[in-house]
Structure formats: C-alpha cells, structure tokens
Design a protein that fits this description.
Distance between the termini: 27 Å
Order of helices and strands: EHEEEHEHEHEEEEHE
CATH superfamily: Survival protein SurE-like phosphatase/nucleotidase
Largest sheet: 9 strands, mixed
Helix content: 10-25%
Radius of gyration: 17 Å
CATH class: Alpha Beta
CATH topology: Stationary-phase Survival Protein Sure Homolog, Chain: A
CATH architecture: 3-Layer(aba) Sandwich
Structural class: alpha/beta
Number of helices: 5
Strand order of the largest sheet: 3-4-2-1-5-6-7-11-8
C-alpha cells in the first residue's frame, strides 16, 4: 500500500480535503499536512523568513501556518519523509488553464514533483446555481486517482485533474488534454477611487480541445504536466 500525503489550499478543515481523505483511504496509507488557513490564489509562494507552526490535529494529521507549497516541503523533508504519492485538493473551484500559475492546490503538486515525488492536483469546478455534492466529487475522483497511481510517473512530472459540476444522474467522460493557454477574463471596474476585479470565470476564453472547454462541457480533464 503506498503512503499518501494529502494537502490543499482551502485549509485543513475544508470539506474538499475531508472528501479526499475518504477516497485516499481506499488507495493507501493516508498522512495529512494541510495549511492552517485558506491560501487560495497563493500560487507557489513559500515561507523562508519566518517560523512556521506545526500542530497535530489527529493521528498522522498535521496543520501548518504556511502555504500549500510550505506544507509539501515540511512534509517531505521533516514530518513524513517516506511518502510515495502526494495528492492536493479537492479544491473548491476549478484549476484550469491559466489557473495553474495562481493555484495553491496545483503549486503543492508542483512542489512535490520538484522534490522527486509523483503528485496529483485535483479540483472541483463549480457552476452557479447548482448545489455542490462532495460525495459525487469523491465518486468521480476515485477511479481517476486509482488509474493514475498505477502509472509509472516520469521524473519531474505531475497531473492536474478537474472534475465537472454535473446535474444529478449525469455521467462524465474522461479526457486527457493539454491546459488551455488563454488568459482569464481580465476586466476591472473603478468604484469610489478603487479598482475592483470584474472578470467572469465562466466567460473566460477557451481553446477547443483543451481543458477549459472540456471541463465546462461536462468532462473530467486530466493533464500531465512537466517541470
């Protein structure tokens, strides 16, 4: 049974991490080192100029007063050095295309790859006005993670998986594809002398055949990334 490290960027008590714990328990021995606080959009920021607080929250479960990338660094070099796989997520919200560069979820997987461990970032795209069912997310994710973890991971590579937000009863095809290279919908509005972001995630540009278009259309997207 592989020894699996779990982390995320939504914080140690996030429902997506709870769902990941449940499904990872079917794949191997689970260890958790997750951020104490949410770090969405933190990217690959790390902490080297301040002390980090490491707190035990349960058996083989720790929280850290740092970023997702910090969590992977501390886990692989200090807390759980014998880890075989790193799983990051399940993020509340998609991490598609240009999101790869700002996502703390993906940064955790990328840091694991830098340190020589195979890793998977997994995120749940969210549609407006449709309730999110984490049990359904877990059902969709389990066979994907199981299949990826059977593969021989090339050195310095990792995977990015995005789950679609489906109507009840619908099934999803699995599509291996490249991340989109289009920018987000980057717009701003001026209000009371301040600049506010006004872009719309669903209205972002998309390239046919790449992850944004496929996931928005209801497919599970799997992208293998290389450093």
């Amino acid at each position: 049974m592989p020894k699996i490290l779990l982390t995320n960027d939504d914080g140690w008590d996030a429902p997506g991490l709870a769902a990941l714990k449940q499904l990872a328990a079917e794949l191997g021995e689970v260890c958790v080192l997750a951020p104490r606080d949410p770090h969405s959009y933190a990217g690959h920021r790390v902490t080297t100029d301040a002390a980090l607080e490491l707190v035990e929250t349960g058996p083989n479960q720790l929280s850290l007063s740092g970023t997702p990338a910090d969590c992977v660094r501390v886990a692989l070099t200090h807390a759980f050095p014998d880890i075989d796989w790193v799983l990051s997520g399940i993020n509340r919200g998609g991490n598609l295309g240009a999101d790869l560069w700002t996502s703390g979820t993906v940064a955790a997987a990328r840091e694991a790859a830098l340190l020589g461990k195979p890793a998977i970032a997994i995120s749940q795209y969210i549609r407006r006005n449709l309730a999110l069912d984490w049990d359904r997310s877990r059902e969709l994710a389990l066979p994907i993670l199981r299949n990826i973890m059977k593969l021989e991971a090339p050195e310095k590579s990792y995977w990015n998986v995005n789950l679609p937000h489906l109507e009840p009863g619908l099934t999803a095809e699995i599509v291996e594809c490249d991340p989109d290279n289009q920018p987000l919908d980057v717009r701003y509005r001026l209000q009371d002398g301040q600049i506010h972001y006004a872009g719309s995630y669903p209205e972002r540009p998309r390239t046919p055949g790449r992850d944004v278009a496929h996931c928005f259309a209801g497919a599970i997207t799997v992208s293998r990334l290389h450093l």
